[in-house]
């Protein structure tokens, strides 16, 4: 069954590429050869550039918020990999603050669960959250649909994307998802390096990569730089119970999703509550800052009775040099993802 | 003359056979309605106006009582089942909406039935289905009040109101949790089997049935764990939710079955 699904995805992809032959510069959503199988349901919502165009307009449209002041793009800025520069936690409508850090957005088609606690398992059902959250956009989906219907541009865009100009919550969600999955990050210097260009990384960066593989890749695993598991990474704990809030399983307390490290140089502040602002602070945390406040502390961070991951300053610096090779400047400046 | 006799005789035989056949035709499928008659203990449930006492002796005044029931299965005397088709097996019962309180099954095959089994809530397959397959009562936009967006899933049972006539504090019990997508989360889905009084009962085209079910809202807080409403006035998921789900599992009882 999985195989069939994968085949269908490939077929759909071929179909996509075909459609775009008349515009060779815009390949749309392309699945990189070295990425795993897509999690997003492309059979339910086949990708098209027309859906992406509509989704992008919605993403940057402040009418998705109650007082028409906050858009998705307000807290997810392209230049910082669609994270929120300088904001520890979400900063929404009426200057209200959320409780968690707005994560970077890319490679979402491979993300099995969304949010720091994994509360949402279907990207299409994600978008409702920030829109309805009283401290983010504080609007309702029916109101958003009503607002969109008054704009003739949307009538046209929905028609191009879905074949008729009906504006429905389902189509709204699917268009936003199409834009979200189109943001693929696989063009960093590291990607160039693993594609065979050995000169893409310098000696220190290569040493950093080796150290990274020894010390970080257990969790920040694979080509996506995350195993998407939930872990207690030894931060001092607050009121936020993390994954427990969703699962109500005691052993999930204080666990949060392992984020991808692609574009990590740009996507700070870091951690679920944005407590760290530099890569140095993160490495210092894992080297010497890990605390055991709860039995759920990850076993990887307490091996042989030692808390944390032993690293010298030189090792930390080399790992940071390597992490910076994961910055995908092409994605960060790709106009297909920018506000028009 | 002989020919005419033969002709008439054959018509007579034919019509006899036809009429025999008619009598032998098995009874066709019948209609079965289930009425969900919401109650509070032994009294009828009335929203906003009436105070009831729970097992903990707390006074409760309900302002809202809504729940999903789904995946109905009718079981015959011989143990075989009629499973209601998936696309017609989800219902949202709302005390504030009289029309919602009776659900109908048009095509229940004739037979001798003993019980009806259903799920309180929305099963995990439907809870993770694409949005396009969630229409009617499962439309998460139209029924946004019965859906958690931050922990994607339906609220299976939702009741709200005030407790303590003196202080008028609010209680809110929102119970959901279907078990999670790719990684396990709490599962508060409950399956209920209601025995039909006087079973086995004949169902079929000549035996349309009306199953009058009492649903005791107080069972949300009464049961295996008697909940003290002043101590635990708000449960929206969390560790107390499974206790409440275990309680309300027993709130459905068939009072009587009428033939229509």
Shape descriptor of chain A: globular
Largest sheet of chain A: 2 strands, antiparallel
**Overall 3D shape of chain B:** globular
Instruction: Write out the strand line-up for the largest beta sheet of chain A, numbering strands in chain order.
Output: 1-2
- Uncertain parts of chain A: 13-22
Give the C-alpha Rg of chain A.
21 Å
Indicate how many domains the architecture of chain B comprises: 1
Low-confidence stretches of chain B: none
What string, H for helix and E for strand, traces the elements of chain B in order? HEEEEEEEEHEEEEEEEHE
End-to-end distance of chain B: 52 Å
- Measured as a percent range, the helix fraction of chain A is 25-40%
Q: Which structural class best describes the helix and strand composition of chain A?
A: mainly alpha
DSSP strand (E) fraction of chain B? 35-45%
Give an account of the 3D structure.
The complex is a heterodimer of chains A (340) and B (260). Chain A is mostly helical. Helix content of chain A is 36%, strand content 1%. Chain A has two domains: 44-184, Orthogonal Bundle (Cytochrome Bc1 Complex, Chain D, domain 2), CATH 1.10.760; 189-329, Cytochrome c-like domain (Cytochrome Bc1 Complex, Chain D, domain 2, Orthogonal Bundle). Chain A has helices at 2-19, 49-59, 72-75, 128-132, 141-149, 152-162, 169-182, 189-194, 203-215, 244-247, 279-289, 313-323, 329-333; strands spanning 230-231, 256-257. Chain A has a two-stranded antiparallel sheet. In chain A, helix 2 packs antiparallel against helix 6 (152-162). The longest helix of chain A is centred in the N-terminal third of the chain and has 18 residues, at 2-19. The relative contact order of chain A is 0.14. Mean pLDDT of chain A is 92; it is low at 13-22. Chain B has one domain. Chain B has three helices and 16 strands. In chain B, the strands form two sheets. In chain B, strands 3, 4, 5, 6, 8, 9, 10, 11, 12, 13 and 15 form an eleven-stranded mixed beta sheet that branches. In chain B, strands 1, 2, 7, 14 and 16 form a five-stranded mixed beta sheet that branches. The interface between A and B is medium-sized, with 29 and 24 residues.
């Amino acid at each position: 069954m999985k195989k069939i699904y994968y085949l269908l995805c490939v077929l759909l992809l071929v179909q996509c590429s075909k459609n775009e032959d008349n515009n060779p510069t815009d390949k749309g959503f392309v699945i990189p050869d070295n990425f795993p199988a897509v999690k997003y349901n492309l059979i339910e919502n086949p990708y098209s550039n027309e859906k992406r165009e509509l989704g992008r307009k919605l993403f940057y449209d402040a009418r998705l918020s109650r007082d028409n002041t906050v858009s998705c793009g307000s807290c997810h800025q392209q230049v910082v990999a669609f994270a929120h520069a300088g904001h520890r936690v979400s900063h929404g409508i009426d200057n209200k603050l959320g409780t968690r850090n707005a994560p970077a957005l890319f490679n979402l088609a491979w993300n099995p669960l969304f949010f720091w606690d994994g509360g949402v398992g279907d990207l299409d059902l994600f978008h409702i959250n920030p829109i309805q959250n009283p401290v983010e956009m504080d609007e309702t989906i029916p109101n958003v649909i009503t607002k969109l219907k008054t704009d003739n541009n949307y009538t046209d865009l929905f028609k191009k994307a879905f074949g008729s100009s009906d504006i429905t919550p389902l189509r709204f969600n699917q268009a936003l998802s199409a834009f979200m999955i189109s943001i693929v990050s696989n063009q960093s210097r590291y990607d160039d390096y693993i594609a065979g260009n050995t000169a893409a990384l310098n000696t220190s960066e290569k040493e950093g990569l080796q150290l990274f593989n020894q010390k970080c890749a257990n969790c920040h695993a694979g080509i996506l730089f995350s195993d998407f598991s939930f872990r207690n990474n030894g931060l001092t704990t607050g009121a936020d119970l993390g994954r427990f809030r969703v699962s109500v399983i005691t052993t999930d307390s204080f666990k949060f999703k392992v984020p991808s490290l692609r574009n990590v140089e740009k996507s700070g502040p870091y951690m679920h509550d944005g407590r760290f602002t530099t890569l140095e602070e993160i490495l210092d945390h894992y080297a010497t800052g890990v605390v055991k406040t709860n039995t759920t502390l990850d076993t990887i961070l307490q091996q042989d009775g030692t808390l944390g991951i032993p690293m010298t300053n030189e090792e930390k610096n080399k790992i940071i040099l390597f992490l910076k090779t994961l910055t995908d400047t092409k994605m960060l400046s790709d106009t297909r993802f920018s506000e028009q | 003359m002989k020919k005419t006799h033969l002709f008439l005789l054959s018509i007579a035989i034919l019509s006899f056979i036809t009429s025999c056949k008619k009598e032998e035709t098995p009874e066709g499928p019948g209609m079965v309605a289930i009425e969900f008659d919401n109650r509070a203990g032994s009294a009828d449930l009335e929203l906003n106006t009436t105070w009831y006492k729970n097992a903990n002796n707390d006074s409760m005044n309900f302002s809202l009582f809504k729940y999903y029931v789904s995946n109905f299965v009718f079981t015959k005397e011989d143990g075989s089942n009629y499973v209601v088709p998936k696309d017609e097996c989800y219902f949202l019962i709302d005390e504030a909406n009289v029309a919602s309180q009776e659900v109908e099954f048009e095509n229940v095959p004739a037979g001798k039935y003993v019980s009806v089994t259903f799920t309180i809530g929305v099963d995990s397959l439907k809870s993770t289905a694409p949005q396009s397959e969630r229409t009617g009562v499962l439309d998460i936009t139209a029924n946004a009040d019965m859906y958690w967006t931050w922990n994607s899933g339906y609220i299976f049972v939702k009741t709200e109101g005030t407790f303590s006539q003196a202080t008028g504090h609010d209680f809110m019990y929102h119970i959901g949790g279907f078990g999670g997508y790719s990684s396990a989360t709490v599962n508060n889905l409950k399956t209920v089997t209601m025995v039909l009084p006087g079973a086995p009962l004949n169902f079929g085209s000549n035996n349309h049935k009306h199953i009058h079910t009492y649903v005791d809202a107080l069972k949300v807080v009464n049961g295996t764990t008697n909940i003290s409403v002043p101590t635990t006035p708000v449960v929206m998921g969390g560790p107390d939710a499974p206790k409440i789900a275990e309680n309300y599992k027993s709130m459905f009882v068939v009072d009587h079955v009428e033939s229509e």
